[in-house]
Amino acid sequence: MFRRLYLALIVAFVAPILLAVSDSSVLPMPEERAANTYAIYRVLMPGEPFSSVPPEQATRWAIAETTVSISDMNPAVPPDGQLQAPPDNVAAFHEAVRDFQAHRYERIQLTRRLNLNHDYDLLDAAQVAGIRRAKAAVDAGSDLKEKYAAYPGITFFSQAFFNNNQTVALVYMSNWCANLCAVGEWVYLEKHGGQWMRRSGISSQRLADSYDIYSVLMPGEPFKSLSSDVARRWAIAATTVSIADMNPAIPPDGQLKAPPDNVAAFGEALRDYQARRYERIQLTRNFHLDRDYDLFNANQVSEIRRAKAAVDAGSDLKDKYAAYPGITFFSQVFFNAGQTAALVYMNNWCTNLCAAGEWVYLEKHSGQWVRRSGITSKLS
Questions:
Q1: Distance between CA atoms of 92 and 64, rounded to whole angstroms?
Q2: How far apart are CA 371 and CA 352, in angstroms?
Q3: Is cis: bond before 78, omega within 30 of 0?
Q4: Residue 141: which region, alpha, beta or left (left: phi > 0; alpha: psi -120 to 50)?
Q5: pLDDT tens digits for 200-248?
Q6: HEC states along the chain?
Q7: In whole angstroms, what is the distance from residue 44 CA to residue 65 CA?
């Protein structure tokens, strides 16, 4: 009886998404949307819970080759039923919602244009059914289990829904794994400097811990020794840096060693970094600091660099940024599975080019984040 009930629950849970890969009315990806759509999928891969899976347990990613429509989602929640428009981009958000409303019943055929840093396969309807049975059915044979052993589960995407000029996007992502840990979420992204960055769709606890960690680390060297007369405000880059922005591009384990008493947690945070190292995240005003601060966009970052370092910087530009001693850059925070250990990159740039880039390892004890390591290296 238990076995029949277990299989019935599996069928009830997965049936809606199976429709997405078995329906015959599947459209090709419109070419005018393809480049941005595949760039967004790349940013989002792998999603939770796959980002923390050890490499030996996930040698390949599996992605459904047909996108899901609103009809395949259970529950069928529209993006504005789960996400709120950001106060600074309400119009663009609603343009993307209207695009969703116009195309919400469409299913799109994906092709191998995902430029991932991990091997992957696009699975058709029969393969989707096969991997689900291999991972979840109690009577799945050893041959079937072996066939899909390389995959920790399978990822489903909707098509991406855009604002009019394709600088804002909404996309639905669902990850299904062996223990029915399906996670379905709408994600809101924005394009800045030619790069797509997620602004929502990150768990609230991950965000809360990230801003707690940023706040613990502020201000970094050499700013912490400056008086409030010299440093009246802090400047923080509004977009996190990825591994592609670091010079030199050193991974955390190239600068830090795992603590002997918490090797496993350090390794999990390192795998989270490896999965997300090319992502850039848009920051918001959720820091808890003892001094006023501002989040600088790309133009402001360029201006403050010029104001502080260029010999021909005008007095107006210097006055504009006189309150700031320099600017701080963060990566996003990379966590272990339990969010009790974290790795983050921090870079402080100041007037005399005293940029100091470092990876920091932290642990959470009694609800508080504590810095356990962090080796500073001078960057040229």
A1: 29
A2: 27
A3: no
A4: beta
A5: 766 667 888 999 999 999 988 888 777 777 788 889 998 899 888 888 8
A6: CHHHHHHHHHHHHHHHHHHHHHCCCCEECCHHHHHHHHHHHHHHCCCCCHHHCCHHHCCCEEEECECECHHHCCCCCCHHHCCCCCCCCHHHHHHHHHHHHHHCCCCEECCCCCCCCCCEEEECHHHHHHHHHHHHCCCCCHHHHHHCCCCCEEEEEECCEECCCCCEEEEEEEEEECCCCCEEEEEEEEEECCEEEECCCCCHHHHHHHHHHHHHHCCCCCHHHCCCCCCCCEEEECECECHHHCCCCCCHHHCCCCCCCCHHHHHHHHHHHHHHCCCCEECCCCCCCCCCEEEECHHHHHHHHHHHHCCCCCHHHHHHCCCCCEEEEEECCEECCCCCEEEEEEEEEECCCCCEEEEEEEEEECCEEEEEEEEEEECC
A7: 16
Q: Which of 167, 158, 174 is nearest to 36 (CA)?
A: 167
Quickly state the pLDDT bin for 52 (edges 50, 70, 90): low
Q: In angstroms, rounded to a whole number, what is the distance separating the alpha carbons of residues 14 and 120?
A: 21
Distance (Å, rounded) from C-alpha 245 to C-alpha 329? 10
pLDDT on residue 181: 59
356 pLDDT higher than 50:
yes
> Does the pTM of the predicted model rise above 0.70?
no
Rounded to the nearest angstrom, the gap between the alpha carbon of residue 132 and the centroid of all alpha carbons in its chain is 26
Residue 323 to residues 111, 181, 231, 307, 330: CA-CA distances in angstroms?
51, 49, 6, 12, 20
Q: Which residue has the tokens 């790349």?
A: 42
The crossing angle, in degrees rounded to 10, of helices 2-22 and 125-136 is 160
pLDDT at residue 22 is higher than 50: no
Render pLDDT for 80-139 as a digit per residue (tens, 0 to 9): 887 878 877 899 999 999 999 999 999 999 999 998 878 899 999 999 999 988 888 778
Please state whether 296 falls in left (phi above 0), alpha (psi between -120 and 50) or beta. Answer: beta
